[in-house]
Amino acid sequence: MNRIQTAFLKAFYFIITSLVIVAPALYNRYPLMYFDSGAYMEMAANFEPSFHRALGYPLLIRLTGLLVSNWPLIIIQGLVLSILIYKILQPFTEKSKLYWIHFASVVVLSFSSAMSWYAAQLMPDIWTLILVLSMAGLIVNQGLNVRWLVFYGALLFFGLLTHLSHIPLMFLMLISIGAIWFISGKQLFKLSKKYWLVLIIPFLMALITVPSFNAKFGYGFRFSLASNAFITANLGEMGILKMYLDENCDQLNSGLCLIKDDLPLETSGYLWDPNGPVPAHPEGWAGANEEYAVIVKDFMTKPRYMKWFALSAVKATFKQMFQIEIGSGLQYAYGEGSSPYWPMKSHFKQELNEYLVSVQNKGDKLPLEFFRMVNYLSLFFSILIIGWAVLQRKLSNELAALFILFILAYIFNAAITGVLANVYERLQVRLLPLIQFFAILVFIKLIGPSINASES
User: Fold this and answer.
1) Is 117 a domain residue?
2) Pick from 294, 321, 348: which residue ends a domain?
3) Who's near 367: CB < 8 A, 6+ residues apart?
4) How many C-beta neighbours within 10 Å does residue 272 have?
5) How far apart are CA 105 and CA 376, in angstroms?
6) pTM
7) Lower Cβ count inside 10 Å, N or C end of the chain?
8) Is there a contact between 264 and 242 (Cβ–Cβ < 8 Å)?
9) Are residues 170 and 51 in the same domain?
10) What is the C-alpha to C-alpha distance for residues 198 and 247, in angstroms, rounded to an integer?
11) Of 406, 440, 173, 430, the residue nearest 323 (C-alpha)
């Protein structure tokens, strides 16, 4: 075969595997929706800063679907995941068997982990997994050419923009990787200078892009427009906001003092209930965020409240790490009058009928219970495989580096989302497929001969 035929067959293969990954959307007959999907579609249309949404995912919706279709972004999400899985498998797999093992891995991950349920959703959470897998691809693939380095850099940049938690996650990952790289005498995370640049430059670009976007519309040069509101709501769910208000309401000018004996129990009651403290604030999200700044400052600076917050943060992190139930929010129908319905009707009317007759919108018809059980079983066997390999010291330096990377990402994600947002399965399960994927890599290493990396 000539080069054109080979390129065509490769493209066809990766399109097929991307469709396997987004199979839940194909089964559903339309991309899966979550309550927040409506806000992302609306932001894609008006493209103005949001108090509770990052700019990256609306930008991707706009660029890929041109406000006509949501399918292109879903297919791209599947395609990117397929390519990343291929590139990470490459150093651990014999070249002649790479496509077979890649296809098998895609099928296993698609039908026994949470990966497909996130890739098939019109939500940015799959980009947390893409962000971490992009870092993994750089770590295990040495000698990449400029084309691949640009590819990874672009994924990192867009991944950082898609969710407000990704920038602190990337920051912690870079600090940790750098520290381990230095302490291990460069034996782990063998990154050359140009690889470090591919990791750092997208991060710096995101640091500039996010606050610049907010500043352009008059909101000031800052990352989040509602960080104080989110943290205060989580303090309420942690149970320590009430204790703080009891001690400080005599000198605190806050509307929360008026309801301190009847505070919402969960963050959703603060942030998303139309009658909650934030939506019902006289000055809206901006006013609530400014008002709660004093509360957040006290919890971050005063020793008495710092102790409360530190203990609650540790508990929230551990709780978040064990949120492993797939399908969060997918059990609901989002028909007429729902949050996703209005932007579908206004901006994606060409696909409105597809959306309305989807399996999801028939109400509780997606086979979530079955795939939750499959996910539990695959996690059980994955942990057995990984645990045995670690105890028997069967991990090579490359696998050890990935193991550390995935563990750090999982813990840091739990800490960031559990402390700064809330303990919620959707925010943690997005990285759960790292466990099954690492088990596949270990299994390949254990059953196969020791092989060198294939050529890129």
Assistant:
1) yes
2) 321
3) none
4) 17
5) 18
6) 0.95
7) N
8) no
9) yes
10) 49
11) 430
Q: Are 163 and 128 within 8 A, CB to CB?
A: yes
Question: Counting every residue, how long is the chain?
Answer: 456
Q: How would DSSP label each residue in 204-258?
A: HHHHHHHHHHHHHTTS-S-S-SSHHHHHHHHHHHHTHHHHHHHHHTTT---GGGG
Write the DSSP symbol of residue 333: -
Tokens 């939506």, residue?
Answer: 279
Q: Is 87 within 8 Å of 141 (Cβ atoms)?
A: yes
Shared domain for 66 and 142, answered yes or no, is yes
**CA atoms of 55 and 62, how far apart (whole Å):** 11
Q: Tally the C-alpha atoms within 13 A of residue 90's C-alpha that lie toward its C-beta.
A: 20
Give per-residue pLDDT as tens, 165-212.
999 999 999 999 999 988 887 778 888 899 999 999 999 999 999 999
In DSSP terms, 32 is beta-bridged to 121
- How many domains would you assign to the chain? 2
Q: Which helix (H) or strand (E) holds 335?
A: none
DSSP state of 453: P
Closest CA to 423 of 414, 432, 431: 414
pLDDT, one tens digit per residue, over 31-86 is 999 999 999 999 999 999 999 899 999 999 999 999 999 999 999 999 999 999 99
The reply to whether 1 falls in a domain is no
Query: Which tokens go with 452?
Result: 């060198």
Q: Mind listing the pLDDT tens digit for each residue in 247-283?
A: 999 999 899 999 999 999 999 999 999 999 999 999 9
Buried-state track 379-396, b at ≥16 Cβ within 10 A, e below 16: beebeebbeebeeeeebe
Count other C-beta atoms under 10 Å from residue 403's C-beta.
18
Rg (CA), the chain: 23
Q: How far apart are CA 148 and CA 391, in angstroms?
A: 35
Q: Which amino acid does the sequence have at 254?
A: S
- Give the domain extent around 300: 227-321
As a whole number of angstroms, the longest Cα–Cα distance in the chain is 80
- Whether 261 is covered by a domain: the verdict is yes
The set of residues, in sequence order, having a beta carbon less than 8 Å from that of 446 and lying 6+ positions away, is 385, 389, 394
Do 296 and 172 share a domain, yes or no? Answer: no
Based on the domain organization, do 48 and 158 belong to the same domain?
yes
- Give the span between the Cα atoms of 4 and 143, in whole angstroms: 24
Residues with Cβ within 8 Å of 145's Cβ and at least 6 positions away in sequence, in order, are 456
Could you tell me if residue 3 is inside a domain?
A: no
